[in-house]
Specification:
- With 289 residues, the chain is an all-alpha fold.
- Helices cover 72% and strands 1% of the residues.
- It has helices at residues 4-36, 55-61, 66-95, 102-110, 117-128, 135-142, 150-153, 155-180, 184-192, 197-224, 229-234, 244-255, 258-282, and strands at residues 38-39, 50-51.
- The longest helix has 33 residues, at 4-36.
Length: 289
């Protein structure tokens, strides 16, 4: 049993890491809040910095692009979550079955997660979705159909497809680990009682995966709310694919005002917290089950 002296020593040794972590999080947050109330033009010496109050917040919030960008952000996040969770469950169940070269197949399925977002977006844009020389265009022509200009005709769906391809391995890995922890005797008993495969999945496998699904949703949402690279490389925010993060980037470039971008960053933090609270209330209860 740990003594008071050993616990104090442990806290003392952990203190530098905790202080560094707090500084890593709090310093950028405080600077963002500070600059959001100022007009600051680091690349425009002709403009004099000064106190702006809530003007930056009002300008950003009343912009005609604000609410569409929030809507686009939520649509992309929701679409990616649905695809990765559903396909992740199916892939995890498939990879759990004994097969030849199982280890190699698992590595190939997980590999896309380690590809940089910019590289992934470039591959999809030029190799798959190009309306002239892309693989999908050749596939469409093979079946006698007219190729689709994905990034201009169905831009949001294209972004969702690209991001889902990146995050599907993460969901599959977490769900596969959860499936492997399932007691096989439960499935054997259900099979002996004559339960069909669909009922086995619905009443045994899916409830067992509930906590893993919750973790996948929460972790992916944190990162997906700040999606940027895929949009920057593919559509450049055009065709209705401008998310809140990309809108912040554009506003800073247009005005060269760091204060305006900082105000947008505060709005992004508020949106992330609202979504996180909503998810914790809806699905986070599974963590306590």
């Amino acid at each position: 049993m740990a003594t008071q002296h050993s616990r104090s020593a442990a806290r003392l040794m952990m203190a530098p890491a905790v202080v560094l972590l707090l500084g890593w999080m709090l310093v950028p947050l405080i600077m963002t809040l500070y600059f959001s109330f100022r007009n600051y033009f680091p690349l425009r010496p002709d403009r004099v910095p000064g106190w702006a109050g809530f003007d930056n917040y009002v300008r950003f919030f009343t912009s005609s692009a604000f609410w569409p960008s929030v809507q686009t952000t939520l649509v992309i996040v929701g679409g990616v979550l649905v695809i990765t969770v559903v396909l992740g469950i199916l892939l995890a169940m498939l990879l759990d079955q004994p097969m030849w070269g199982q280890g190699v197949v698992r590595i190939l399925v997980i590999a896309p997660f380690f590809v940089m977002p910019t590289v992934s977006a470039l591959v999809w844009k030029n190799m798959f979705m190009d309306p002239v020389n892309g693989l999908l265009a050749h596939l469409w022509r093979f079946f006698g159909a007219e190729p689709v200009s994905w990034l201009s005709e169905v831009p949001t769906a294209s972004i969702v497809m690209i991001v889902s391809w990146q995050w599907l391995p993460f969901a599959t890995l977490i769900l596969l680990t959860a499936i492997q922890s399932l007691d096989s005797e439960q499935l054997e008993a259900a099979a002996m009682d004559g339960a069909p495969k669909l009922k086995q999945f619905w009443y045994i496998i899916l409830p067992h995966l509930s906590r893993a699904i919750t973790i996948v949703i929460l972790i992916q949402t944190i990162f997906l709310l700040s999606i940027f690279a895929e949009i920057f490389v593919t559509t450049g925010g055009a065709f209705g694919t401008r998310t809140l993060t990309y809108l912040i980037f554009q506003r800073v470039l247009e005005s060269q005002n760091v204060g305006l971008g900082s105000a947008g960053g505060v709005y992004a933090i508020i949106l992330a917290n609202i979504v996180a609270i909503f998810l914790m209330r809806i699905v986070g209860k599974n963590l306590d089950a």
